[in-house]
Amino acid sequence: MRMYDLILKKRNGEALSKAEIQYFIDGYTDGTIPDYQASALLMAIYFQKMNEAETAFLTEAMMHSGDVIDLSAIDGIKVDKHSTGGVGDKTTIALAPIVAACGVPVAKMSGRGLGHTGGTLDKLESIPGFDVHMSIDQFINNVNRLKIAVAGQTADLAPADKKIYALRDVTATVDNISLIASSVMSKKLASGADAIVLDVKTGNGAFMKNTEDAFKLASEMVTIGSNMGRNTIALVTNMDEPLGNAVGNSLEVKEAIDTLKGEGPEDFRELCITLASYMLLLAGNIDSIEAGREKVENVISTGKALEVFKTFVAAQGGDIKYVEDTNLLNSSKKIYPLQSDKSGYINRIYAEEVGLSALLLGAGRETKDSIIDLSVGIVLNKKVGDYVEKGEPLAFIHYNDEDKKDNAVEKLKTAYLINEDNPAKSPLIFGTVTREGIQRL
């Protein structure tokens, strides 16, 4: 078998066999297939697409390219949640303790941020002392004792995907549905969960700018998970404007903690409640989404979810005084109010521009080696549909560096579309995808 033949075959629009895909994954992972040939194949896949069988073969090969974690020692059905990424998406920080407080084990392996999308691990490390590094035995023990643990992915988890994603990132082959689906699902399947809830973002701040493409991606991932014996469901959710108000590591942690206290922005709170309800449903903890909502709202209102969060933070070395008083969290030296230059209704807030503005402040990584400033970011004062007076703040920019602030201000100004008409509000959740098909809301 030769890599040249695989490239030629896919370039001509033919389907690759399981053996051919395994050959590619094995060879690229061990370094015998060079980057230039892997790049050529990825570009051929980008243009010629992959069918359902090829996507499944690719997912399975990447899943087995390293360790496959065995979580059978954890009592109960383990339900994982994965978001395809967005701006202000701090969902795991609030969602995991909510689900754990309902009695469902959450064994979560998360990643770090790159570009304008933030990483859960970076955000949690805003809490002084919080440690995302632990052995598998410790990870399992924490989940059995506390119903919750969040750790960084091991170096040996789906290493083929890590190599391929890095190559896709520099060869303009990221936004292909089969490649995205196989990348996400290879890591989720290797992480050992029994069931998976997928939050597939669509809109300006997401990979999938188009809602129909988001439903296609969701369907592909649900099919992969189901065929691999995992009960899988996807929600297609709105990322045209940032989720919640806060964008930036410490700022997002504070907002997640506020939500656990029964406060926090309405859109973020609603998404957490909905995702948690589906996780409880897949775990067999409740028999309907309505029952799930009731249970979730109860653990928030009684303070149980917040107490689970404190226990979880303490168990991973974090200082809970920063949870009890979020004003102690790392904060920027200065805050700049971005004032509106006109009166009117907010018709659009382009999420990607907000995310890039936060990146310019230092809240994200431009490269994997970039050092994040955990204190900086943006807090929106107005959301789509709100009325703003001329001179009223649209957002507050939390910054430490004047030059970075100036660059962020210019970028953030382009994020807002304001006019006299009150816009129709887009839904937060566009629909769900199960093995049985798509249900639009």
Strand percent estimate: 15-25%
Major sheet: order of its strands? Answer: 1-4-5-13-14
CATH homologous superfamily grouping of the largest domain: Nucleoside phosphorylase/phosphoribosyltransferase catalytic domain
Give the total of domains.
Answer: 3
Q: With helices defined by DSSP (H or I, 4 residues minimum), what is the helix count? A: 17
CATH topology of the largest domain: Pyrimidine Nucleoside Phosphorylase, Chain A, domain 2
Q: How many runs of DSSP E, i.e. beta strands?
A: 14
Subunit structure: Homodimer.
GO molecular function: 1,4-alpha-oligoglucan phosphorylase activity; deoxyuridine phosphorylase activity; metal ion binding; thymidine phosphorylase activity; uridine phosphorylase activity
GO cellular component, one term: cytosol
Family: Belongs to the thymidine/pyrimidine-nucleoside phosphorylase family.
Write the SSE topology.
Layout: H1 3-11, H2 18-30, H3 35-48, H4 52-63, E1 79-83, H5 91-101, E2 106-110, H6 120-124, H7 136-146, E3 148-152, H8 159-170, H9 177-190, E4 195-202, H10 211-227, E5 231-238, E6 246-247, H11 249-260, H12 266-282, H13 289-301, H14 304-315, H15 321-324, E7 334-339, E8 344-349, H16 351-361, E9 377-380, E10 387-388, E11 393-399, H17 402-413, E12 416-419, E13 429-434, E14 437-440
